[in-house]
Design a protein that fits this description.
Blueprint (H helix, E strand, L loop, with lengths): L1 E8 L9 E2 L12 E5 L4 E8 L10 H12 L4 E9 L10 E2 L2 E2 L16 H21 L4 H13 L1 H16 L4 H9 L11 H11 L2 H6 L8
Antiparallel strand pairs: 1-4, 1-5, 2-3, 3-4, 6-7
Helix pairs in contact: 2-3
The structure holds flavin-adenine dinucleotide.
Amino acid sequence: MSSVQYVMADIDINPHATIFYIGNEVAPEGYPLGLPQGQTGGKRWVSGSPAKKSGKGHRAKDYLDKFVKQKFPHGKTIECIVGGVSVCRPLDCTVADGLMLAGDAARVVDPLTGGGIYNAMFTGKLAAETAAACIAKGDTSKKALMAYDKAWRASPMGKTIERNYHIKEYMIKQSDEKMNAIIHSVSKLDLKEFSTLSLVKELLKANPKLLVELGTLAASLR
Ligand SMILES: Cc1cc2nc3c(=O)[nH]c(=O)nc-3n(C[C@H](O)[C@H](O)[C@H](O)COP(=O)(O)OP(=O)(O)OC[C@H]3O[C@@H](n4cnc5c(N)ncnc54)[C@H](O)[C@@H]3O)c2cc1C
């Protein structure tokens, strides 16, 4: 996905909240997301748009500009960052003879949230540990380095990426009306500890029909 991020000042929103706007009008297959930024009161707004819907008027920047103009006509954009965010599955194999891929290069971004910083750090550390052990043994062949590939796939991070890929694929196919109905069903939710999984579980509780629609994936969410 093409993504663009603005750091903004002079906008009046709750500094303690993270806000997501979902919908085909604001960002098809993506979402503008607002995050608090330090103690200055500044906020980050991020938006994405899939390559298949890009083109004039449909670039991530076009969507974010339209959104920002409507929501914060007096806000100031003080920084702009653009980049690609992989929302696909990770690479089939992330090692070769004398080569290891971590982070975005391995496509280990969470496909549902677009978050890749933790995953890049986690796979980077694991790759370094495996590399050090392999170098010490004098064997940096693909076969020896596969320990790294296997370890991250078996980790909670690897499993979360696979699960969230399916949830994302399901969600991007739903209409705005259906997404509104799903989200409103848990609008009074009081989650003591917020996580993507706890939210998805609550969504399933409130919308049992989703279990059938999600098929085999649902079993791993209960
Ligand atoms: C707009 C936007 C907003 C995002 N927001 C979030 C967020 O809020 N939370 C989150 O978790 N993730 C977010 N992400 C995703 C996150 O930024 C990435 O997943 C993460 O930075 C990946 O880390 P990395 O080290 O794998 O790659 P990178 O951070 O891309 O680092 C790769 C580095 O390699 C350098 N490089 C490239 N080629 C060469 C070369 N040939 N020689 C030497 N150096 C080279 C690059 O300059 C770069 O510094 C966002 C991404 C974008 C685009």
